[in-house]
Structure formats: C-alpha cells, structure tokens
Design brief:
The chain has 16 helices and 24 strands. By secondary structure, it is of the alpha+beta class. It binds iron/sulfur cluster.
Length: about 475
C-alpha cells in the first residue's frame, strides 16, 4: 500500500504536493519523495526514508520548486526497504526531456516485463520497484516504437497485469492513469471553481489517492478516476480523458475496511459510513446474546472506531474509548517485519486504568491477519480486569495473500487459513469470536459486484499461474 499525489501548473506545486502527502501519510510511512518540474523544463527529484514532515521539510521544498509536481508515500509490498525503492522515479531518456512517475499498486508480471526490457532492449533498472517498471515500459514505447506519450501509456497499460494508480510528468504535461480494474483508490480534484459546463481546466488539477487530502490544500473533489482511464493535463487547456480501457471492476474492499481514512470518499462509498454499517451488521449477528449494562463496546483504535460505534449504536450498548493508542507509533500492520510489528503493539496500546474491572467487553477490530496483535490486546484487557471478551471482526476471514498492492503475508502465516474458528478464538483468548460474512457486504455496498474479495474467497482476477512471477521474485520480502 502506498499513496500518490500530483498537482498541475500551480506555483508552489511542490509544497502543495508535500501537504497532500502528509494527508495520506497513513498509506505509507517508510519513505516518501517528490519530483517537481520548473518553468525551464527541468525535473528535480528528492526522496528519503521517513515521514513526510521530516523528509520533505522546508529547506528541501525551497530547493525543489516547480509548478508541476508529483509525490509518493511508500509502504513496501515488493522490493527492498531502502531509498532506491522510494518514489517518484525519474526515467532518463537519451535525448531528454526526462519522465517522472509514481505509482501505487503491485504489478504481477513485473519480472516477465523487466527481464524482457533488460535482455532484449538493454534497459537498466535502478530499483526493484513497480513504479520504475511502469516508467521504463512507457519509455520503451516512446523510444523503440516511436509512439506518442499517449499511445505509449495505452500500450503499457495493456501489458501490465495487476494494480496501478499512477501519475506521470512528461515534458510540460501530466498524465494520470489507472489499471483496468481500479484496485487502488484514485481521485481527481481542482483548486479552481468547477464550471457549470463541467469542463475542467487542467491548471490547478489535483490527483491523489484519497479525497481526504483535498481539504488541506483547499481543493474540491471532481470525481474518481475511472478504472482503466488515462487523463491528460496540459497548460491552459481542459483536462482530457485520452482513453478508458476498463476491465472487470475490482475495487479493493480492504480499502474500505482498513486502509483508507474514514473521512475519505472512495469507490462510490463514504468510508466512515461503510464502517458503521459493518458494525451494525455485526451487532445483528448478536441479537440473541444477552449483553447488559455491564457490557462495553470498545475499538482497537483507530481503524476500527467507526465499526465499534456502528455496533454499539445498533446494539444499544455503550461505546467507550477503553484502549488508548499512542499516536507517535505508526500502523503496526504497515511495518515491514514481524519484530517491528511486535514492538509496535507493545508501544502502541494501553488500557485505561480501572476501566475494565468486572466488565464484559465487545472488542471490535477491522481484521485478523496473523492474530498476534489481537492476542496481545486481549491478554492486556484480561489483565486489566475484563471478565469476558467478545471479539467482533469487521472483515471476513483472511485466507489468502493479496497480489494487488497490500502486503498480506503468505498463507502459512494467515491464522484463518490454518486454524479452525474455535482454535482462533482460543488462541486470541476470547469468549466468543465473529467475523462479518462476505455476502453481507451486499447489504452495505452500493455495487457489491465491483469489489475484490480475493483474500477472503480466493477468487483472484488473475489465474494462479500468473502469480509465480511475483512469488519467485528474488527480492520478494
Ligand atoms: S486480495 Fe484483498 S487486499 Fe488484495 S485487492 Fe483484493 S480485497 Fe484488497
């Protein structure tokens, strides 16, 4: 999971992009970067390990000014955790001008395409990153097939299998494009007023992963990028859709369950609203249970807050913030290795003193991946005096890996793929355990059929033989 941002033809675009990235920091905390193009046509790129406010500080923003800028926050799903794999990438073209690109998602046929470009056309890669592959593939069509930039993006889009929400700077233009299935979120906004005729001027257009970022720069949302859409932004001209090469829509349901911020609107849904409805559905499963005044509903903060609230409102139970989260620790799931995740849990959560004594607790979480975090929290609440713990999960059981940009571990590490329901409940130290069922999302989502549930039902869009390229990658983590 990563986040992308771009702004077209606005003075101080580099600073605005840094602000956008700050708003989508939850999508990746390992590294970040920006590429800015100035009026003289030069592209400057700066990247570093760490958080946006530290890496893209005022001194850097003073040095890397431009009126067209793109940026990225990274959480590694493929490729090593180092600066070479941070984005954006600047692809140097022999006769210039160079091309800058950033992308969110995973390319399943990464190795196939990379090997082909390296062996047959002498391309040299500087990273193991999908964003660089997309850039070099587009460069291939520009250089070797002498296609226009628009045609090159269309051809690259046809070759790439997997998930990509991407932004590219080429000469004085910016392009936004997305995979045909629309796996990852991608929204279009503007810093200008939206004219009544709907014709959006390119200048001032904002491209970003999540709509929650618009507020920080004062942008208004225009719409979501369509699955398979390619848009072109050109100085003084309207924003144009170059092509729409859509396939079966496969929006990632995990974005609504966990990743996206609650104040984001994505895939035609309000994230907080979906989470509250998930909570209400979980409460429906418990209609027969006799929870009384000694019961409190608490969330594993923060991504489960709205699910717990929805549960409590539907069940007419009290919702409370019994578990405190230290906000100076990042998301544990988005830490690259287990050791860091374990440390994160210990540092991250703490129960309120004297709060749980003698209480029945409905503990709501968004998902269970390995189960290690929830087991520790459950133990923490027992030690704090909880007499019963009823765990309710806002996603179905995770039984498969994700190949489209989310770093779910291998099947061997997924608790639900290896243990029975009762074994998981016992492992977590819970009295009862319930997950929301996949079919019940049909009551929650406006377009249930447009969503990917593959890590819950193993119905992957691409056939299993497509995966070996990714699984066998020598740099896979
Ligand atoms: S497999 Fe799961 S995490 Fe990956 S895109 Fe599909 S729903 Fe999202």
């Amino acid at each position: 999971m990563c986040g992308i941002a771009g702004i077209f033809n606005v003075s101080g675009a580099e600073t605005l992009v840094a602000e956008l990235l700050f708003s989508i920091q939850h999508r990746g905390q390992e590294s970040c970067g920006l590429a800015a193009r100035n009026d003289r046509g030069n592209i400057f790129c700066y990247k570093g390990m760490g958080l946006v406010k530290n890496v893209l500080n005022e001194e850097i923003l003073q040095k890397y000014q431009g009126n067209i800028a793109i940026g990225h926050v990274r959480y590694p799903t493929a490729g090593k955790s180092d600066e070479t794999n941070s984005q954006p990438h600047v692809i140097e073209l022999p006769e210039g001008p160079h091309l800058a690109i950033c992308s969110n998602g995973d390319i399943i046929n990464y190795y196939e395409l990379r090997t082909w470009l390296e062996n047959d056309y002498g391309f040299t890669f500087k990273s193991d990153n999908d964003g660089e592959l997309i850039g070099r593939l587009i460069a291939f069509y520009l250089l070797h097939k002498k296609l226009t930039i628009e045609e090159s993006i269309i051809e690259a889009q046809k070759q790439l299998k997997g998930a990509f929400s991407s932004i590219l700077i080429y000469r004085d233009k910016m392009f936004g494009f997305r995979d045909p299935h629309g796996y990852r979120p991608y929204v279009i906004g503007t810093l200008e007023d939206i004219p009544e005729n709907g014709e959006i001027l390119s200048d001032g257009v904002v491209l970003v992963s999540e709509s929650c970022a618009f507020g920080i720069v004062g942008a208004k949302m225009i719409r979501e990028m369509l699955p398979g859409e390619i848009i072109r932004l050109e100085k003084g001209k309207p924003m144009v859709t170059v092509a729409v090469n859509s396939g079966k829509t496969q929006h990632c349901i995990f974005e609504l369950i966990y990743f996206s911020r609650p104040d984001t609107k994505v895939f035609g849904e309000k994230v907080y609203d979906v989470r509250k409805k998930i909570g209400a559905q979980l409460a429906d499963y418990d209609k027969e249970l006799a929870f009384g005044d000694d019961t409190v509903v608490i969330a594993v903060p923060d991504s489960s807050n709205f699910v717990a609230l929805g549960y409590a409102q539907k069940a007419k139970l009290s919702f409370d913030m019994g578990l405190l989260r230290n906000h100076y620790v990042g998301r544990t799931f988005t830490k690259p290795d287990q050791k860091q995740r374990d440390e994160g849990v210990r540092h991250k959560f703490n129960p309120l003193p004297d709060f749980f004594n003698g209480k029945k607790v409905v503990l709501v979480d968004d998902s269970i991946v390995r189960g290690t975090t929830l087991r520790k929290i459950s133990r923490m609440l027992r030690n704090a005096g909880a007499k019963e713990i009823h765990i309710r999960i806002g996603s179905p059981k995770v039984i498969g890996s994700c190949y489209y940009g989310i770093d779910t571990p291998t099947k061997q590490e997924l608790i639900a793929a290896n243990k029975s329901h009762d074994e998981i409940c016992e492992y977590l130290g819970a009295d009862t355990l319930k997950h929301i069922e996949i079919d019940d999302f049909g009551k929650i989502l406006h377009n249930f059929d447009d969503f990917c549930f593959a890590c819950f039902n193993l119905k992957y869009q691409y056939k299993p033989e497509d995966y070996h390229q990714k699984v066998n990658r020598p740099d896979a983590e």
